[in-house]
Amino acid sequence: MPNEIKGLNEECGVFGVFGAPDAAQLTYYGLHTLQHRGQEGAGIVSSDGASLYQHRDRGLLAQVFADQAELKRLVGNAAIGHVRYGTSGHNSIANVQPFLFHFHDGDIALAHNGNLTNAVTLRRQLEDDGAVFQSDSDTEILIHLIRKHIREGFIPALKQSLNQVHGGFAFLLLQKNRLVAALDPNGIRPLCIGQLANGAYVVASETCALDIVNARFVRDVQPGELIVIDRDGLHIDHYTTKTRLAICSMEYIYFARPDSIIHGVTVHNARKQMGRLLAREHPVDADMVIGVPNSSLSAASGYAEESGLPYEMGLIKSQYVARTFIQPTQILREQGVHMKLSAVRGVVSGKRVAVVDDSIVRGTTSKQIVKMLRDAGAKEVHLLISSPPFRFPCFYGIDISTRSELMAAHYSVEQMRQRIGADSLHFLSVDSLIRAINVPDAGDAPDGGLTVAYFTGKYPTPLYDYEAGYLKSLNEQERRAQGRLIK
Amino acid sequence: MPNEIKGLNEECGVFGVFGAPDAAQLTYYGLHTLQHRGQEGAGIVSSDGASLYQHRDRGLLAQVFADQAELKRLVGNAAIGHVRYGTSGHNSIANVQPFLFHFHDGDIALAHNGNLTNAVTLRRQLEDDGAVFQSDSDTEILIHLIRKHIREGFIPALKQSLNQVHGGFAFLLLQKNRLVAALDPNGIRPLCIGQLANGAYVVASETCALDIVNARFVRDVQPGELIVIDRDGLHIDHYTTKTRLAICSMEYIYFARPDSIIHGVTVHNARKQMGRLLAREHPVDADMVIGVPNSSLSAASGYAEESGLPYEMGLIKSQYVARTFIQPTQILREQGVHMKLSAVRGVVSGKRVAVVDDSIVRGTTSKQIVKMLRDAGAKEVHLLISSPPFRFPCFYGIDISTRSELMAAHYSVEQMRQRIGADSLHFLSVDSLIRAINVPDAGDAPDGGLTVAYFTGKYPTPLYDYEAGYLKSLNEQERRAQGRLIK
Amino acid sequence: MPNEIKGLNEECGVFGVFGAPDAAQLTYYGLHTLQHRGQEGAGIVSSDGASLYQHRDRGLLAQVFADQAELKRLVGNAAIGHVRYGTSGHNSIANVQPFLFHFHDGDIALAHNGNLTNAVTLRRQLEDDGAVFQSDSDTEILIHLIRKHIREGFIPALKQSLNQVHGGFAFLLLQKNRLVAALDPNGIRPLCIGQLANGAYVVASETCALDIVNARFVRDVQPGELIVIDRDGLHIDHYTTKTRLAICSMEYIYFARPDSIIHGVTVHNARKQMGRLLAREHPVDADMVIGVPNSSLSAASGYAEESGLPYEMGLIKSQYVARTFIQPTQILREQGVHMKLSAVRGVVSGKRVAVVDDSIVRGTTSKQIVKMLRDAGAKEVHLLISSPPFRFPCFYGIDISTRSELMAAHYSVEQMRQRIGADSLHFLSVDSLIRAINVPDAGDAPDGGLTVAYFTGKYPTPLYDYEAGYLKSLNEQERRAQGRLIK
Amino acid sequence: MPNEIKGLNEECGVFGVFGAPDAAQLTYYGLHTLQHRGQEGAGIVSSDGASLYQHRDRGLLAQVFADQAELKRLVGNAAIGHVRYGTSGHNSIANVQPFLFHFHDGDIALAHNGNLTNAVTLRRQLEDDGAVFQSDSDTEILIHLIRKHIREGFIPALKQSLNQVHGGFAFLLLQKNRLVAALDPNGIRPLCIGQLANGAYVVASETCALDIVNARFVRDVQPGELIVIDRDGLHIDHYTTKTRLAICSMEYIYFARPDSIIHGVTVHNARKQMGRLLAREHPVDADMVIGVPNSSLSAASGYAEESGLPYEMGLIKSQYVARTFIQPTQILREQGVHMKLSAVRGVVSGKRVAVVDDSIVRGTTSKQIVKMLRDAGAKEVHLLISSPPFRFPCFYGIDISTRSELMAAHYSVEQMRQRIGADSLHFLSVDSLIRAINVPDAGDAPDGGLTVAYFTGKYPTPLYDYEAGYLKSLNEQERRAQGRLIK
């Protein structure tokens, strides 16, 4: 969750409901629990069976709907909503979802979590055929593809279009009388279905959003599925049968809320187990275990339990760091002033501290944490990472698509330790990661039904538009290891 | 810290610095770490040796200084700042501190944490003598008293005035060439002194504010002291010698940041110790211990360690609950929808859960937490409170000055348990509380140098304006227990 | 200009410049003088030869660019801008112009003043062919048409597209290296070209926008012309030769700024002449002439001069009526409380007053003005309108496209007088209107080169999508008079 | 009214009502018509007979009450309001009126138009006696004086206080059951009384504010009067009998709204008469007369009528110049770009133009106007000022209290003409000014009951705190002319 410290950012969270009074309000609460998946923009589109109503803007959900009248305007029994992460360059309101498109034969709203790997190619083809795009977003491509085939009917057009787009995606579409959800053939992004007491169905990125609206969990959406919800209830269809589960492991490691259950695994439990296996693989000689709040606290408590070391609060995180916060000057920063994290001197002073963190991206935060703990008197600082080294980019919706920013892509573990300044540095192995998560739905899918390409370079899909750039970023040895050759 | 759930609210936090370039900026960072002490308003006054500069407004610090230009306008080497809690009724900008008063013989700024017990009487006397008040705040009384005596000189006038006001108070005053700090004769509110690398002195409500600006801790301000900081350095003076330490125990239990050190005691360690002693006094038969985030996590981990039960994350707290958040409808609330806290179903389902919380004020949050855990499948819910029952109001700066809101003032523990719906309910004893905190500076002060009147009704000072109302709120038995008689 | 009182609202104003440093800033000042043409939204797109930069929002220009940084971000030597009137229903930011479209082969910005009469038909055809529209605006149709033909090259595609759209239009298009302007075949909306001292060319809806940036007037854009401005200078081309001047007479009567010169006629002079001819056609027995500020002051002074009656200030207009103004309650309104206009008691009391106004749309303002003057003591109130009765809607960009709101469409002059409560009511004849304006460029164009269809029902073009609805709104007699038959 | 162009700014407008439902709303409309008297801040305090309610902020009235809920909160049958001009330096919200003071024996609200000449002295004395001021405003002094005497009762204390303050002032005070108005002994600032249909009384700076709330004019408040309005009706009292009418002539020349009637004189009529007498004193050989909009249009039409020259619209003023407007760069300004005024080329080109303006303060606007007209082709530009040269400062509430800014204090008329660049420059004589206004209430008061000290240096009162500085600003000759000697 602490996106400001990490360099990793999930692209989005989605929520939809069909058949419930105050659908927009339910969507608002659902999106609230998904806010950790995106803080740059939020929006809701509702339907009253006749028309679609939209409100969206940049900022946090509570800012976008600061005026309650905006939410009240979104009448009707169906709605979809979206929270968005976006890089500053493209952070115009035109890119805030859900998109709402008006056609003489009916309006369509669209919300998306994920990333398409053949977006550039598709967009160029569409523009050459006369298409006019209104956003920079990949998401809009789907609607243009649908409209190309619209004379065949909406659902057939949608199925054809879903077979044309590639990558990791979870789409929600709202028409005046229908809510549609679709998941990519590898189920890379999470998406689940719930049901309200009144029988209405809910679709959300994570189960925490079902919980807040008191919806009973029904099932996870499966790879390649097309879910249609209308007045007749829930229809489970599919647009492809060439599927293979490869859910993003970073959801378990870092992104998802600890109370969410993805493909049968409670995220907190998976993290605690990562901590336990980390303690077995890498026991350290220390006086206490501390976690980096908030996302690493589960793993830290697992490490503490397994190792028998006391679990302490050695770092605390401010609740009040706002986007508008005035940043410390360079001089203050060099003195170790950090707005978000503080070391607890009274706890760590004079002690050998084992710090558990969930991942290292650029390494800058790790370095600051080690300095902060030493400044507060820690005698030794051992850094334990509850995931493997993050060496390869994500092309499925996490905002790291180049290797240049990844510390582990360029340095050995020992080099990283030196740069970070820790007394020791250890990572969880890929095998232990898979074992800690242990997806029950995995069947015989490789890597336990997980995408672990960030650690291994072995992606579950072709990379299309990204392939050439990716290949160039690999060194000789990596290319061979992955069986990739530049022609 | 989670003020929205509790009914308790600290009145303020203060920060001052003299002799450092960018004094206002340092004050901004210092106030940032004190934001948990007040979220209703914030302000800074700086001095460049010739003039005083002010900016203050309602809202969080980051909102008040959303425009960085406002901070840059506050030039000079000295500054004081304030974060404020205020009830909505009086939440006008006129009450946001520091107050800045212009006089033909020099400006004075004033910031205050605490509450005066004879404010009504003093104000009435002053008004009858021609005084015109600009705020509803007690704080302003001090300046009117000072001006009454001003012909005797500023410091003598201040000392006289400090002997006229009663209650719990920590004052900071800024003149163009001087920073002054004063603490009440019982040291009820915390106040500490630090020193920057360049020799400049810093004064703050908590040591976490020293840490963020990299100031070395010098000492706590002692009861009855008057601290003057000017170009010649630090002068420790006093305005009274009739002093006796009675630091507010709620600072340790609930208000202060876990990384702060008050009178030699790290707050996290005190809380963890409360949890340990609670486990000794009230062991329960459970499968796990969970804490109510964030302020009860330390006590919960103490309880877990002492009891040998696993420490789990059974409740999580949203980071994104804003003041502007649209509240759930009554129906949703009855369904258990809670914006701030969520139970982790995958952790508590089917389990006997021991929940540690730091206090019960009105009892409404406790009731919601128990319901939430049961809805998530908990088999048993045992509620363990790491402080004694809160039965008597605070007149020294915590925003509970009537007994009507206090659940423990009206119900026995068993009655409370029933209303809250827990399987068992236990409180820490007053003796264990005193033992857990264990203030080393206490000497032979009663109650270990703490104010524990909230639990015992035995206040360290006369109550002045509040005495009559307080007496009326007591029943016969309580009056006798406290040796108080209505004439 | 007083749009709030009238029911008439011009759709837009446009401004463009190519070849000048700080092009966006010049556009800002140009748009400032065109603000009377639209107060609902404003925007600017600039080009630095490589990229296009956009800022637009709802509200007045000064609000949209309240943060000067937004204007500074719009770098480059070329820019186009737009001020927009829009009905509240469609007042989303998506409809605020200029529109900016991104294509892999280059961006295009588009701004439009006018209205297309075959927009519905074109849009339906485009959508059925797969087009996805992003706004409700007619304007966007042009870009979809262009993209359909884009493989033939941009200028040929644009010419083809301009022959497909019908109605009244003035388009500005900006590409990274080119500014293009196009006017409809009847020149219904005004558009002029100017030149800066440095040789850069400027295009604007009115000459007042040339004046403010110190541009020398070059020429009016003529019907059917396509103006291309690039590094090689100004290129005058055309996309059709089937043209006939029919400039909108309402520009002279009401919309345009009095200092603008349209097709050789200074607007103030035209209005003053309307007042003079009105005095010749309808002399009244009165003590003074007063005008309704601000748009009728020219005509009123003309009437006064011709009639020899004194010209007085009998009505004054508040400068401070904001959009956010809290409207008087019904009771206050019935008492004659009016936020915008006040009668000057000391001037009109006891007098016979001749009030000159430029037009009557719904008649509600006229009624209020008469009441206000009588309440201030006027003995007689004679209402003189410096244009003919407004009986037929405008389909070329003025926001009256139904007859239901037009008082003169439903009542005789005598009936209008009674409803308004004036002692007499007179209108200028169509012939005098044409004579007063006296367009020198008119040649042998009918109606002196003016569109006077609002008074006669004789439109200079077919009405396409509007024809059926318009026919239904006519009575038998009107249909015959216009030679129109319902099949 | 065009404050941005002039250097002159009225300090305030006041409005009060007692005994009418929705008193705050009436006050809002009243203040709306007084907005020309101050645009920097606005506020209203209402009373419901038990409590006083306040809202005030910086900005225009419509901005301050942009949220209608703020106005609705101000319940009760009585209210006072204020619009304020303030220089940027002191433009804090603390200075925005009405001030509201809370006392244990009842609240008091206070609004003021004018300026006290012995404020510095009084404030110093009060502070030395212990007073704490909350604003920089002179206004607050009155409340401190009242509280000094409060044990004698409110009205006696007020009368004593009014005899202690000197200068030009119109005060409104609101207590929960009473509205009080007081005017200085010379009646320098205007103040009038009206009555609503329901019998409630209204007090306002100008009669235009009576008109908008449909109040019947009752009488002007006379010098030295104290008006008390309560449930028993209107009580006319006085605090001094040493009075002599000297109403500020600038109200007629420039500040007041043309529809207001001050001491029996309609402002428009006075201005028109100034124009007529100016034409008699200074006929010029020209083709037309034009006025500088808006405040000089009355005088211009008077000049035109008297001279027989045509009255034309040669300058127009933009309605859309906002405070936030981005100012033209220096280069653009030098090119004559002016945001507020434009010359009408089609009117003035090739013509000899007589421009009538109401006053010259710094001369910069006059210079710009002349340049603008010449740039638009005017052959000759004759500047005619409908008041005498403004040579001496105002100490009674107009924001010019030093002579350094006044062009006429430093240059002869011929020197002014050269600097401004006009072909001729003429001013109205003091005698004609007095004759044009012709106050019927004047009796045998000197200067026709007007303050004309701005032109003559002969002030109707001693200058107290300002005397020394003023004397220093005079040259030998001026000192002698005024019979003033420096000791």
TrEMBL record, chains A, B, C, D:
One GO molecular-function entry: amidophosphoribosyltransferase activity
Q: Which cofactor does it need?
A: Mg(2+)
What does the record give as the active site? 12 (nucleophile)
Glutamine amidotransferase type-2 domain segment(s): 12-232
Q: In which pathway does it act?
A: Purine metabolism; IMP biosynthesis via de novo pathway; N(1)-(5-phospho-D-ribosyl)glycinamide from 5-phospho-alpha-D-ribose 1-diphosphate: step 1/2
- Per UniProt, Mg(2+) binds at 295, 357-358
- Cofactor note (record): Binds 1 Mg(2+) ion per subunit.
Q: Which PROSITE patterns match?
A: GATASE_TYPE_2
Please name the SUPFAM superfamilies in this protein's record. Answer: N-terminal nucleophile aminohydrolases (Ntn hydrolases), PRTase-like
Instruction: Sum up the protein's function in the record's words.
Output: Catalyzes the formation of phosphoribosylamine from phosphoribosylpyrophosphate (PRPP) and glutamine.
Protein name, UniProt field: Amidophosphoribosyltransferase
Gene of this entry: purF
